[in-house]
Specification:
The chain has 330 residues and is an alpha/beta fold. It contains ten helices and 13 strands. Helix 5 links the parallel strand 5 and strand 6. Keywords: Carbohydrate metabolism, Isomerase, NAD.
């Protein structure tokens, strides 16, 4: 059995590919390298250098490699940027998913793990987000990923009625950080960790927006999870589908407790070994005090848990990032 990892040369996708190889699974990656890097992948993993939105090309890669299951990560993942580029976001995220589903149907491939996002919840007014929390996405990114989830569910229903079942699940998570594969790092110009690390590598002080929230240290609390833990959940889900299990439709990969912005920034400063203090400024409009998800369902079904501490996240991210002289791979 061979799994196709779409977006496999990206930061998260490459970690999933590494984890699947380590688990003894046969893996093929698909990526157009618009943001991914061939060097992020294990040398043993073939790369189909095509766009996920081209169904014919996707089907060719699947057929040539005798694919039996898909982990679908390829997407335009930046919520803020998606507001500026809604059409691009919808094409990549929904059209890409429809392309994958169409190619799977053509070839009779019957299992898919969808890498979704907790952005489908928007800004929930609850202390702990569960899978039953209402979805209210607030960006084209969140909306398009939720639409992709629904497309998978409806396609599965259609295939079941036609006697060709499609087993599936979607994994929702917030902020993915850290590194566990040599030279694989978050290169996004929009994410917190690379922004903080770039600033610290220049000797600049990172900013903290808002210190008077109703949280233990007054700064916003968010759900940060180590990329290795996220990758492990994808592997377990794939293995469960391979064994014939019917997983639940959605799983949150949440910490259940969260981490404050101050904790993250202090840990980054310590890891960088620089003598700077964060700049404390006022709140930004629209920043909720706390957004944290429960991982209880995933813990029960997928053996999900936070195996890495905040310090693990920060130290591994810093060690891998080129700003700190990490072993970057092209």
């Amino acid at each position: 059995m061979t799994w196709l990892v779409t977006g496999g040369a990206g930061y998260i996708g490459a970690h999933v590919a590494h984890a699947m190889v380590d688990a003894g699974l046969d893996v093929v990656a698909l990526d157009n390298l618009s943001s991914g890097r061939r060097g992020f992948l294990p040398d043993t993993v073939p790369l189909g250098w095509v766009s996920v939105t081209d169904q014919d090309d996707v089907r060719d890669v699947m057929e040539e490699n005798a694919i039996t299951g898909v982990v679908h990560l390829a997407a335009f993942k930046y919520a803020g940027e998606s507001v500026k580029r809604p059409l691009h976001t919808w094409r990549q995220n929904l059209d890409g998913t429809l392309s994958v589903l169409g190619a799977m149907q053509d070839l009779g491939i019957d299992r898919i793990v969808f890498s979704s996002t907790a952005a489908v919840y928007g800004t929930p007014d609850v202390d702990l987000v569960t899978e039953e929390t209402p979805t209210h996405p607030e960006s084209p990114y969140g909306s398009s990923k939720l639409a992709a989830e629904r497309a998978i569910v409806e396609q599965a229903a259609a295939r079941r009625s036609a006697g060709a079942p499609l087993r599936h699940t979607a994994l929702r998570y917030f902020n993915v950080v850290g590194s566990s594969a040599p030279g694989v790092y978050d290169s996004s110009p929009h994410n917190l960790f690379p922004l903080v690390m770039d600033a610290l590598s220049r000797g600049d002080a990172p900013r903290i927006f808002g210190t008077d929230y109703d949280t233990p240290d007054g700064t916003c609390v968010r759900d940060y999870v180590h990329v290795a833990d996220v990758a492990a959940a994808h592997v377990v889900a794939a293995q469960a589908l391979d064994s014939g299990e019917d997983l639940r439709t959605t799983y949150n990969l949440g910490s259940g407790t969260g981490t404050s912005v101050r904790e993250i920034v202090d840990a980054c400063i310590e890891a960088a070994g620089v003598d700077v203090a964060p700049v404390l400024t006022g709140r930004r409009p629209g920043d909720p005090a706390r957004i944290v998800a429960s991982g209880r369902r995933a813990s029960h079904d997928l053996d999900w848990r936070m195996r890495h501490t905040v310090r693990d996240m920060v130290d591994s991210a810093w060690a891998a990032h080129p700003a700190a002289g990490g072993p970057a791979r092209g």
